[in-house]
Design a protein that fits this description.
The chain is of the alpha/beta class. The protein contains ten helices and ten strands. A hairpin with a 5-residue loop joins strand 1 (2-12) and strand 2 (18-28). The mean pLDDT is 91.
């Protein structure tokens, strides 16, 4: 089942700026999908369509194979299914304490107090923020704020989580913690969509990648298929992952012969190098 499908989406801002041009995008249930593109490519604009924050100029959005409607009741239901985590957690966290912030969504859903408390406790535990209930969000680190923002969405128990640049502004440890959390949520069955321009991060988690450039989807496929198209990657003002770039140089400049597709992760590169060394020693 497609949990989210965008069909021929175009969007024009009130000042006449055309942000999206005939975008087609679909995400299957239980998958983890990356929308990869440089700053200003249209990633955030597309994401804001997924729970009706903005409405397309033309085209339509379907959630769980049902057309997205824009009445108040319909949008409230959709926002319980599709949770969006913004790039800057300060745009999302506004309550005096962590516990109040995470409880905001479930309370607005009209849930009983004990159910809200259970959901908040469970969500904070999942993101590793239990014990921070009475802390003020603005006193937290960047990574902690991101985790509280994710907890606020988890407490609403959505089927789909959409994250705009989830590792932006985080140090390597904080970014790694967020990725591990998202990977675990996906393993538990949640459909996850992430926008990013971090090409090194994408091969670590994504089942499928879309490349967006100037408001158009110019490539889609699994990580190897997408990054094999080096010309399109560079045309979109992106680059190969560092590992793949190293292997590209070794192949072109040093005539080292590896498998057809460039390795994208350290694990894949290690395997390719060991295979090469084994072949080379046997030939020697």
């Amino acid at each position: 089942m497609n949990m989210i499908e965008a069909k021929e989406i175009t969007y024009e801002y009130p000042d006449g700026t055309k942000a999206l041009h005939g975008v087609n995008f679909n995400v299957e249930q239980g998958s983890m999908v990356a929308l990869l593109g440089p700053n200003g490519a249209g990633k955030s604009t597309l994401f804001l369509h997924f729970n009706g924050i903005i409405q397309p100029s033309t085209g339509q959005i379907e959630i769980a194979e049902e057309k997205l409607e824009y009445s108040k009741d319909a949008l409230n239901k959709v926002r319980q299914k599709v949770g969006i985590v913004f790039q800057n957690p300060d745009d999302q966290l506004f309550a005096p304490t962590v516990v109040e912030d995470v409880a905001f969504g479930p309370l607005n859903m009209g849930l009983p107090r004990d159910e809200v408390e259970n959901r908040v406790s469970e969500a904070l535990k999942k993101v590793g923020m239990a014990g921070f209930e009475n802390k003020a969000p603005h006193h937290l680190s960047g990574g902690q704020k991101k985790r509280v923002a994710i907890a606020g969405i988890l407490a609403m128990k959505p089927k789909i989580m959409v994250l705009d640049e989830p590792t932006s502004g985080l140090d390597p440890k904080g970014a790694s913690q967020i990725l591990k959390l998202l990977y675990k949520l996906n393993e538990d069955g949640m459909t996850i969509i992430i926008s990013t321009h971090d090409v090194d991060m994408v091969p670590l988690y994504a089942d499928k990648i879309y490349i967006i450039s100037s408001g158009e989807i110019i490539k889609e496929g699994n990580p190897h298929d997408v990054f094999e198209d080096v010309e399109t990657i560079r045309k979109a003002n992106l680059r190969l992952p560092r590992i793949a770039h190293l292997m590209e140089i070794l192949k072109k400049e040093d005539k080292l012969s590896f498998s057809e597709k460039y390795p994208l992760t350290i694990g894949e590169a290690r395997k390719s190098l060991l295979e090469y060394l084994d072949i080379d020693s046997n030939n020697g």
